[in-house]
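Subgroup meeting minutes
Present: P.N., E.W., G.H.
Scribe: E.W.

1. P.N. recapped why we're keeping a running log of single-chain structure predictions: easier to compare across weeks, and new members can see raw inputs and outputs side by side.
2. G.H. added today's entry (928 aa).
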Amino acid sequence: MRRSRRGTTLAVAGTAVLLAALTAVTPASADPVKAAKTITDRTAAQIAALQSIKKSLTPAESKVDSALVVEARKRVSAATTSALPQVQTGVAVTPKSTTLVDIRAKQYSEDLVNAVRAAGGQIRAVSPEHRTVRAEIPVAKISEIAARGDVARVEPGSDAMTQDVKSQRDKKSKAPSKEDKAREIERRLSEKTLSVQAAKVAESDKAHNAEAARGSFRVTGVGVKLCALSDGVSSLTVSQNNGELPAVDVLTGQAGSGDEGTAMLEILHDIAPNAELGFATAFNGDASFADNIKKLRFDLGCDVIVDDVIYFNESPFQDGIIARAVDAVVADGAMFFSSAGNQGNVVDGTSGHYEGQFVDSGVGVGKFAGSAHDFNPDPNQKQLFNPLSNFSGDTPTVLHWADPLSQSANDYDLYLVNAQGNVVTFSQNNQDGAQDPYERINTPASSTGTRLAVVKYRGEDKYFALSLFGGRFADSNDGLKKYVTPGTTRGHSAANGAISVAAAPAAGALPFDLEPGDPANPKGPFPGAYDGTQKPERFTSDGPRKTFFAPDGTPLAQTRQKPDLTAADGVTTSVPGFAPFFGTSAAAPNAAAIAGLILSGNPTLTPAEVKEALTTTAIDIVESGVDNRTGAGIVMADRALAYTGASPQALARAQKPTVLNDNDGSAFLKPGTTSTVTVPVANNGDGSAASTSVVLSTTATGVTIAPRSKYYGNIDPGQTVSNTFKVTVPANATLGSAVKLDARVTYSGATSPGTTSFTLRVGEPSRQFQTFAYSGAPIAIPDNDQTGVSISLPVTGVGAASNLKFSVDGATCTAADGATTVGIDHTFVGDLVGTLTSPAGKSVTLFSRSGGTGSNICQAVFTDDAALPFSSVTSAQAPFTGSWKPVTPLSALTADPADGTWTFKVADVVGTDRGSLRAVTLSIAGWV
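Output recorded in log:
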C-alpha cells in the first residue's frame, strides 16, 4: 500500500509570537567545552564550523534567524560552503535571490514598511497589533533591515500546515500553477452539474446521528453563524453553483488560496444546513492568523469558529498570539474548535514527539558547544541522538524549551546528522534573554539514517519538546533506540478556550499505510452510527499538554487535558482532493457544526455549557474514561441535543420596509407629509414565533410614528406577516436627511427580542449623478502585496447619497499586456481585490479574485442594479467590461454623508503578475 505524509498540507504562512525589544547584542559565549565521547570527528568538525559562525555574529546578524545568516554567508563566502558540504539551510530562495521573512518590530510604523520597500522588499502582510511586517526581501538586504533600531528580529516567513491526511504520492505530485488552478475552476464552473455523490453521501451526518437528530428535534442551525479558518476557498463559487454551499461571508481580502476551507465549509453546512457561514484564511503569517480569528468574531459576528491549522513556531509551553486570540473570542462568547493534529501518538506507535527534562550527557559537541542531551534514561548508557524513521523526509521539525516567549536566556540548538556523521541541517539561533525558546529545521527529502541531537549551547537544564510534523521516531539499523513521549498536541489547539478535536473514521478506512508495514487502519460505522467499539485514527495526535507560563510569561504550571473530544473524518465533499477528506481537519468542523446545532436549539447556553454537553454525552472509546487520544470520546448530535433540551427556535426579524406617501402616492418620505410604512416580519427559524409584536421607533427630530406598536400574531416557520405604520415628516426636514427606524420584534422564545434598523431618506432619489474621477498618473499595483495601492476621491456638494456607482474606466478596451488605454491593466485579474471606503470609514468589496487568467478591466461599471455579479466572470470575457454587481452592495455606503474623502484600493494578493491602476470614477446621486 502507499504510504502517507501525515499532517498534511504544508505552506509558508505566518510566524511565532511577537518578540520584545532587543538591546544591543554581544557575541554568544558558550559553557566550557566538555570531552567528546560518542560524537564522530566529522560531526564535531562541522558543528564547530557552525558554532564559529554563531560566535562571529555581528549585532545585526544576532537579530536574524541562524538559517538566514548561514544562507546569506554561503552566498558570499566559499569558505562557509566548503566547511559545510552537505548542510541545507532550508531557506527557500527565489531565482531573484529573495526570500520570505517576518520582521518583528519593537514598534510598528509606516516608516518601517517603506524602508522594507526601499530595500527591494515586497509587502505580503502587516499586523500593527502584533508589530509584524511580512515581506519578500533580497537575501543580501536582510542584515541591513535587521540593523534598524526599530527591528527586534528577522525570521524566515513563519509557515504552517493544515491537518488533512494525504498519501506520500499525492504529497510529492507537482503543485498546479495558479494558471492551472484558475482554468480548472472555470472548467468546473462551466459544467454546472450537481455533485450527486456529495449531495447524497453525508457519512458524518449519519455516523454522528446528526441527520436523525435534526429530524427529531427540528433544529437546523438557524440563528447561528459558523466560521472556518484554513488555507483558502478557491472553488467556493463552484460549490455554491453546484448547490453544495449557500452564501459565505468571506473576510475582505482574506479568501486565501487552496480549497481545504471550501471542504470544511461543506462539512459545516451538511451538519447544520441553515446556519450562516463565514471564512478567513489562516495562511498569511501567524500575526495575520491571530488578527483574522478576532475579525471573524468581532467584525463578522461568528458564533462558532473552527480551524485546522498549526504554526510550527507555536510554543507548547505558553500561549502565544494565536492561542491568546482564541481565548479572546471565547471570552466574548464564541466557541472555538481546532484540529488536535495528525502527528501520531505513542499507543499506536506513530509518534514523532519527545519531551522531558534536559539531561546533560557530559559529552561535548563541536568546538564551542556546551553539551548534548542524553535521551537514554539508563544512567549507565548514553544516547545523544534520537533516530528518525526512513519515511520522515521533508518533515518540519521543531525544538521548544521551557523559557518564556521573548525572554529566553538559555541557548539550545538543534542538529540533524546522517549515518555518515555529516551535519545535514541545523538551527542555532542566538538566545540571550530577548528571543523565543525555539529552533526549527526541515528534514531532507530522504531521512534514511538521520538522527537528531539537542545541544545546550549555554544555560540551565530546561524541560524541552522535540517534535516532527509528519514523520516519526524509529529504531535505527545501526543500534540507536527511538525515544517518544505523549503530548504531541500543542499551540492554540491546546489553549484553555479551544476545544481540541481528534479523529475517528466515519466510513471506509484510510486507503494507504502511514508507513510501510503498519497495521491496518480502522474503519467507521457508516451507514450506521458510532458505538463504543470504534477505534480512532492511528495518526491522531495525543496529549496531554503541559504548560509552564501564563500568557505574559510569568510562571504558571498547568497540565491541560487534550484533545477534548473526537469527531468524524474520512467524509465525502464535492471538492477535488477532499473526497474522501481524512484528518483532524475534517473532524474539527464536524464537532463545530454539532455545537452549532446545540446553540440553534438552545441559544442561551454559554460556551462552557455547550462544551459540557458535548463531552458529557460523548461515546467513550478505547481507554475507559477521558484519555489522551480521544478525550471524552466521540461527540453525538442526538445525545447532546437531548442533554441540552433542544427545541425548534423561532427567528422573527423585521425586513426592509416599503413606503407609500399618502399625499402623492410616491414611494418616498417627503417634508410635511405622512406616509404609510409597511414593515414585514419574516420567521426564518425552525419554530413558531408566538404572540409577535413590533415596536417601531425613531430618534429623527420632529418625525412621529403612529401607532407605536402593532401585534403580528403567530408567525409560522417560513411565513412573513406585514403591518403598517404612519410616519409623519416635519415640513422643515431637509432633503436627504436620515430617518432611522428601529424595529424591535418581540415574541415568545429565547431568540426574542430582536431589533433591526433601517435608514430611510427624506426626498426622492435624484436621477442625476455627480462624478468624481481619478485624474492622476498611473500607479503600479505591487505584486503579492496585501497593502495594495490606494487613491483618494474627494467629494463635495452632494450631502446624502441616494445611489452609488463605481466605474473602472478606459478609452479603448483591450486585453493586451501593459495596455495604457484601460482603467486597470493587469495580466491576471484573478489576483486582484478592489474595495471602496466611504468618508465614514465603511468599506465594500467591488471585486475579489475573479476573472482568472484574464487581463485588464475597462469600462466596467459596478452597480447594485446590474444583472450579474462580477464573481461570475471567466477569463474568456477579458478585457472585463459592462455592468456588474459588486461583491458587497454599494448601498451599504449610503447611510452616511457622502461629502469627504473616498478611497479606492486595489491589491494584488498572489504572486508573479503585475499591472497598474489608471482611471476610475465614483458616481453619486443625491436627493431632490
